[in-house]
Design brief:
Largest sheet of chain A: 4 strands, parallel
Largest interface: A-B, 8 and 13 residues
Helix content of chain A: 25-40%
Strand content of chain B: 15-25%
Strand content of chain A: 15-25%
Oligomer: heterodimer
Number of strands of chain B: 20
Number of helices of chain B: 12
CATH class of the largest domain in chain A: Alpha Beta
Strand order of the largest sheet of chain A: 3-8-7-4
Structural class of chain B: alpha/beta
CATH superfamily of the largest domain in chain B: P-loop containing nucleotide triphosphate hydrolases
Distance between the termini of chain B: 59 Å
CATH topology of the largest domain in chain B: Rossmann fold
Number of helices of chain A: 9
Strand order of the largest sheet of chain B: 10-11-9-12-13-8-14
Mean pLDDT of chain B: 90
Chain lengths: 224, 436
């Protein structure tokens, strides 16, 4: 008998004839069915650029204002359920909750075409307090390259505490790691981040990666 | 930081304070990690990268890892002993209440662990007042806690009016920061932040969720109390465990089997119904339940109908509508209009309320009858059933009313609930209680 990592309720493994026939240990899901049902993935119609959930399939207002052809894919809408999840996982630092999203990230990455996977890094200060990078926590065994670095001086306070205008004005926080020049040239890079809010962070990261010689950059985020 | 913040507490700090004793927040015992705040074992998968363990049990109070340190300064009781009683409460206790209050005061003075077993609607809070006044006058540090935050929120202004001492109110998202006070009102979760701090701990609704089923919180209550301290449990429905302690004389007990108006508790009647669950699946309700509700409709009697689960609410309402009974509303814990609906029922704007166990305790409606659908469901514990029965007849003008439980069988929980009500009524009759 195990409990759901998210809500703590009991989870009982489903026993079917097939599981009995294979005579393998019963695999209990880490997340209960109720929590699984609360997570509702994004569905059509979406903005073709940033994957925002909307009523039409036209390019959304924010993407028009950006004026570029950035393509972002996302898995979930950033609704109350995802906010609660991010609150517990990222801000309270419950690293165990990474297993909730691992299957979703695995399936989403399998659908993407890319050469190099680059997760958005966290600052050294965040590493000290949080103790983990929330993005790489979702990766199970997918290879990734940490070609970006970020320092605390550029992030005096977290993005999530700023207004939209402040976020859009924020300066470039990323640098290329020394190893980048060997990895990036002529590669299709996929950036992985937790939430796409204004798109500012991802575009900052992409600008640096293009400088490193990549031929294309797209992104995947857990939530939009 | 003011050092009084650490008196009798157990706080994780980034920097070591000038005074105080620090211990690692997580300790390794025989290869397993144990959290020093909540005393729970760390799960085998609860690690950060680089194999740093962290505690998921008390995560809500701020994450503790093996790198965190907890600081404490032993409780010094820096309160002046008062020359006169801090009790400013002007109310009058009934003769029965006064006898109970005297008994509680005597046991407190003797430093005994005790239980005040008073029926629902007996006025437990006020019975504790004389003993609390005595303790505060002696310069004791006292915590008045409850597992339920709404109890704490309701209690804090009452205690502020009744006692002229500074008080700190602590709960999940409290607006005011912690201060060192002789009287602390908090949820039982907040007690995890204290260590050997209180001379006297009062636990209100000791049998309520989640304290009754949580070893973590039960330990928190014991650890927040000083080794020389004592505790007072307040409840109308002590669980099996507390009743065992009473039988073994490990816990002193004061009974108050009569309500403030002097009438006995209405008995719990059981009516057997065949398979109410499958009837509900077909959007039907047991015939005798429907007849009862119809009768209430004709006489204008208001009723509470308790159902086991949130998902039953809509089905029961549809079944009632199909049977031609209108005027009922449903309410559950996550209902955004919960307060408004309960208020509408209180003001007699609706005739019936279909509810889950959220209204089992802490609410008073004048002149209601109570129906319980599926009293054999696991949700209805003995304590829940007695509490639900206690919603009836709380007022002097309407001391009686029906409490009818519809169940497929007489389960042990139902029998225990009936036995508890009967035992309290036997004691009450000896004290001159009248049948309503």
């Amino acid at each position: 008998m195990t409990t759901c990592v998210w809500c703590g309720r009991m989870v009982t493994p489903t026993v079917t004839l097939a599981t009995l026939w294979h005579w393998q240990p019963l695999s209990t899901p880490a997340v209960c069915a109720a929590c699984q049902n609360r997570l509702q993935p994004l569905h059509a119609p979406q903005c073709p650029r940033c994957a925002r959930q909307q009523t039409t399939t036209q390019v959304c207002h924010d993407c028009v204002r950006w004026g570029d052809a950035w393509v972002n894919h996302a898995i979930f809408p950033y609704d109350a359920v995802l906010k609660a999840y991010m609150q517990q996982y990222k801000f309270q630092g419950d690293y165990r909750l990474r297993v909730v999203m691992q299957p979703y990230i695995r399936r989403a990455l399998a659908r993407e075409t890319y050469d190099v996977l680059v997760p958005i890094p966290v600052t050294a200060g965040t590493w000290l307090t949080r103790g983990f990078n929330q993005v790489t926590g979702w990766l199970t065994d997918q290879p990734f390259q940490q070609v970006l670095t970020v320092d605390d001086a550029h992030k005096p306070r977290p993005q999530s505490s700023k207004t939209r205008q402040e976020r859009l004005r924020s300066p470039q926080p990323f640098q290329l790691a020394p190893a980048a020049e060997k990895i990036l040239p002529n590669q299709h890079v996929l950036l992985l981040d937790d939430v796409y809010t204004t798109g500012r962070t991802l575009r900052h990261a992409a600008a640096q990666i293009y400088l490193g010689g990549a031929k294309a950059v797209t992104s995947l985020t857990l939530a939009r | 930081m003011d050092k009084s913040q650490l008196f009798g507490r157990r706080l994780p700090l980034d920097q070591a304070p000038p005074e105080g004793h620090g211990i690692p927040a997580l300790r390794q015992v025989n290869g397993r990690w144990q959290c020093q705040r909540c005393q729970q074992w760390i799960g085998v998968n609860d690690y950060l990268p680089h194999r740093i363990p962290y505690c998921r049990h008390c995560l809500n109070l701020g994450r503790l890892t093996s790198h965190t340190k907890l600081y404490t300064i032993p409780e010094p009781n820096q309160f002046a002993t008062l020359t006169h009683s801090p009790l400013t409460w002007q109310g009058q206790l009934s003769p029965q209440q006064r006898i109970a209050a005297q008994a509680v005061l005597r046991l407190t003075q003797a430093g005994r662990n005790q239980l005040l077993w008073a029926v629902t609607g007996a006025g437990k809070t006020e019975i504790g007042f004389p003993a609390l006044a005595w303790a505060l006058q002696r310069g004791w540090r006292v915590a008045w806690t409850s597992p339920r935050v709404d109890v704490c929120l309701e209690l804090a202004p009452r205690l502020a009016r009744a006692f002229a001492v500074p008080q700190a109110v602590l709960y999940g998202d409290q607006p005011r920061p912690y201060t060192y006070c002789p009287l602390t009102i908090c949820t039982t979760h907040q007690l995890l932040r204290f260590e050997a701090a209180f001379d006297w701990v009062i636990v209100d609704e000791v049998d309520a969720f989640p304290l009754a089923t949580s070893p973590l919180l039960q330990l928190a209550v014991r650890r927040a109390q000083k080794p020389t301290g004592s505790h007072l449990y307040l409840t109308a429905t002590p669980g099996q465990d507390l009743q065992r302690q009473i039988r073994r004389h490990q816990l002193a007990v004061t009974y108050l089997p009569l309500r403030h108006h002097g009438y006995l508790l209405p008995p719990l009647r059981v009516k057997l119904v065949a398979n109410w669950q499958s009837q509900l699946d077909q959007q039907r309700l047991p015939g005798n339940l429907l007849r009862q509700v119809r009768q209430y409709q004709q006489t204008g009697q208001r009723y509470l109908l308790f159902v086991p689960h949130v998902k039953d609410l809509a089905r029961v309402q549809q079944a009632l509508r199909r049977a031609g009974i209108e005027g009922g509303v449903t309410v559950h814990a996550a209902d955004p209009q919960r307060q408004a609906k309960v208020q509408a029922f209180r003001e007699r704007r609706v005739s019936g309320l279909v509810t889950t166990t959220i209204l089992e305790r802490g609410v008073t409606f004048p002149a209601v009858c109570v129906l319980i659908l599926g009293g054999d469901d696991l949700v209805f514990s003995t304590a829940a059933l007695v509490q639900i029965a206690g919603r009836v007849g709380r007022q002097r003008d309407h001391p009686g009313g029906d409490v009818i439980c519809y169940a497929t069988s007489q389960t042990r929980t139902i029998q225990r609930a009936q036995a508890m009500i009967n035992a309290l009524n036997r004691r009450g009759r000896r004290l001159g209680g009248r049948c309503p």
